[in-house]
Amino acid sequence: MNRKLRSFLRRRGATPDEIARAEREGRLLLLTLDHQLMPGRPQYTFAEACRRASFDVDAAQRLWRALGFPGAPSDERLFRDDDVEALITLRRQIESTILDVGENYEQLVQIVRVVAGSLAKIAEIESDALANAVRDRREESVPDDEIAAQLADSLDWSRLSRLIDYVLRLQLRASARRKLTADDPQAIGAEDLAVGFVDLVGYTALSQELEPVELGALVTRFEELAYDTVAEYAGRVVKTIGDEVMFVTADAAGAARIALRLTERSAVDELLPEARAGLASGTVLAQEGDYYGPVVNLASRMVELARPGSVLASSEFRDALGDDPGFVWQRLRSRRIRDIGRVEVWALERAAQPVTEP
Fold first, then answer.
1. Which residue pairs, CB below 8 angstroms and at least 24 apart, start in 214-222?
2. Most buried in the list 9, 105, 112, 330, measured by CB within 10 Å?
């Protein structure tokens, strides 16, 4: 092992025995990553860390599980000074915040669970990139100790955390502005929005035929196209599930342009099958970053009725869009939709001579 890497690991808290054992067992990369992300030596049990932070052990266990981890073994010293500092920071935040953490921390646990789910996805994306980089260097016959040294030099966690902090503040500002400027301040959580679903036709059958790498490329391309298009027209991607994306916008025109553009782009994309879309609008319940209610259900069912390359919408969505000259409508026969009842269905298309889009 080169001297620079050994010095890095020692500064980060790794013992000589730990370094030698990792080298023998082929875990040098993992040891470097561990000490890059979590420097220092584990020296506290879970209960000891909680006591040092003056934090209730049972509450801390609930929050630990909400992060997505099983209960920590009671007698193993797995926790560092950074873990104690995190608990102290959390305790001080609870003591000073105007937000209701709930009796027995129920609301705080719920918030932690949602935030942890989002951060877990970021971690998966980052770890995919890291694993691919390591694989490429191993294919080039670069020794693991050299890869570990490169990892120690290149993985600047403080820089990445600053970027995450910046993006989170931007997103929080935008979300809070939208909710705190509602017409009815007592109705925070209920929003009037246009809701859209877009999915790829024949994805299930196609996924059985493609190699994993090809399927991954297809999903990545669809997500890239969806996020770019939704952002272009001031919408927000709520979630993607394989072949389907759900989005919301403040106005029907933006949702209409997103749905049409996504179906048009997928039709000419060499990698993607054709897409179809469903749209509805009205009052939805916003909770934990997702949206619920009959409007969401209706938009989801609309996409199931749509043919490849088409966009279907509800009567309420058509009324919300009004007489915008950039679009034309075709009234279809009404349909009875399971759990919703009979609804009017409209096909949305671009006008032959569309006005210039904003």
1. 217/271, 218/271, 218/272, 219/243, 221/269, 221/271, 221/272, 222/266, 222/272
2. 9
